Amino acid sequence: MAVNFIALSKLFILALYTYNLVSLQVSKPIQDTYPWTAYNISSTLARISLNQARVITNRSNDTPATEALAELGWQNLETQRAKTKAKQMFKVLHDMAPNCLTDLFSLKKNITNYNLRGSSTSLQLPLPKTEFMKKSFSYDGAKLWNSLPEASRDCTSLSSFVRELEAHTFI
């Protein structure tokens, strides 16, 4: 019985090592660099990540992948992309990003004369005329930023914002 346990633990360690190698060299750079990747690429990467979690936890394909992700303490790629996009939005609004990105966004308080609740940190959403526009960073980033709690939007440093993001549940 002990031999089987040792063999299984070696197999688990090998699978975990393989996942980390593949994740760090293939999946992670793509999702970190391009949090707004095309839908077909992002869905393929998500499927690969979920299958990797199932293999590492030794679960069959018909069990929900969320159980495997929870067991490993991982987040799904959609959540990771949302957090990356939120961090980028924080950088844009706090002048830590290039001007070409900061020019895409404007605060509601700069557009309207009304003193609305939360308008000091809310962004004006551009009016999308196409589905393509709804998937753009200028629309989706502003929509994501406005969906964050006001405590998160009021953070002054990136490190405190990241801590607030960890407490916020996405999707």
From TrEMBL:
Entry keyword annotation includes Signal: yes
Span of the signal peptide: 1-23
Domain of life assignment: Eukaryota
Keywords attached to this entry: Signal
Name of the featured protein: Uncharacterized protein
Organism: Nematostella vectensis (Starlet sea anemone)
